[in-house]
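Recall the central idea of this unit: under ordinary conditions, the amino acid sequence of a chain determines the structure it adopts. In this exercise we apply that idea directly, starting from the sequence alone.
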Amino acid sequence: MKYISTRGGSEPLSFSAAVAEGLAPDGGLYIPAEFPNIQDKLEYWQNLSYAELCFEFMKLFATDIDEESLKDIAYTSYSKFDDTAIAPLKKLDNGLYILELFHGPTLAFKDFALQFLGNLYEHLLAKSGKTINVLGATSGDTGSAAINGLLGKKGVRIFILYPNGRVSPLQERQMACTEADNVFPIAIDGTFDDAQAIVKEIFGDVSFKNEWNLSAVNSINLARILAQCVYYIYAWLSLEKSERDNVQFIVPTGNFGNILAGWFASKMGLKVANFKVATNQNDILYRLFKSGVYEVSSVKPSVAPSMDIQVSSNFERFIYFMEGENPERVCEIMGEFKCSGKWVFDNFSAEDFSASRMDDSEIATKIEEIYKKYGEVIDPHTACGFADISHKGTKIILSTASPAKFPELIEKVIAVHPTAESLEKLLSKPIVNEKMPANTQKIRDYISANGIK
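Accordingly, the structure predicted from this sequence is:
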């Protein structure tokens, strides 16, 4: 299996090489040169555990990694989850389910991919004898999950940029209270989009990237998207067979990676009727799917901070397939979007998708409503998934984070204070981070001063 760039200007790579590169040298994102068909495998996969399913799925893509090593990576990656199902599918009502994706070490769905990616990095480094500096940007959960996946790993240093004051206090503590000497949290003055732009610019500096052996931990890294495909398949297989014919996945998403993973699974043969993009008030994706216009506006801080994003970095992969797998067209669109912050699609049609949005007041109301109706305490991102539930078939809402990560809002709305032991332990620890301006050169200098060679 080979991996190619969405912009067509980079050589095809093996799985391991694409993971190590993160962002392609031409600025594009890696995608599989072709998708396997999994339809004839689903019956065999029916009774597998989550780790077993992950191994069976990932061996279709990681063809340059020996199967025993890949199996060990998969099994180790899901050994720290606090529910034996790993991703339990919970029925709320007739035809309505939530897929709980917050049972990993940092209590958010990012653990599914980043525990896997951390163990994958460890395997690749042990095999090559190299060191890496991992660089990423986060709007909240990615940073803490990436850091947890790489804590103390030999030959790795991790630099995570996040918008100062725009992540939840507990999300910040998960990044800045690790006491690990290979972790460098950087609080920048700006938004997530500013942080992501700095990361992409640094990766675009090929000489600097090569000098410091930089690798990406954001969902621009294809391994993350592929690892996230697994929980869509697992959820679908967890349904009764009579419920599988008309399934809608409802996905809270800001960076488009979470929902893209499900769409990729459907391109491989998983039978899904529709994917619904659930956004907060930073609704660039909602506006796109309603109008065909992809246009940046200002970021408004919200009670669902992981979706406080305007430029969805994974959207380029979607564009590639929407535009007939034409890299020249992708380059044109991304170039114009970078210059003007806007692109109007001709005859835009995304039949596999629908969209909804919620502002802060609606999120609070929905948290209260779901608690009263079902006795379920949900976090603000999951609440966005409950907007306008009108699909006639089976509906699966991805519950992306534990409510314990947002205790102030939950307590204010329903007078319940959700807790988690791992988070409580962080409250007594000092926050250790580096506060910096949103300046690419200053971040580059900081990596040079603290990176590993």
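The radius of gyration is 20 Å.
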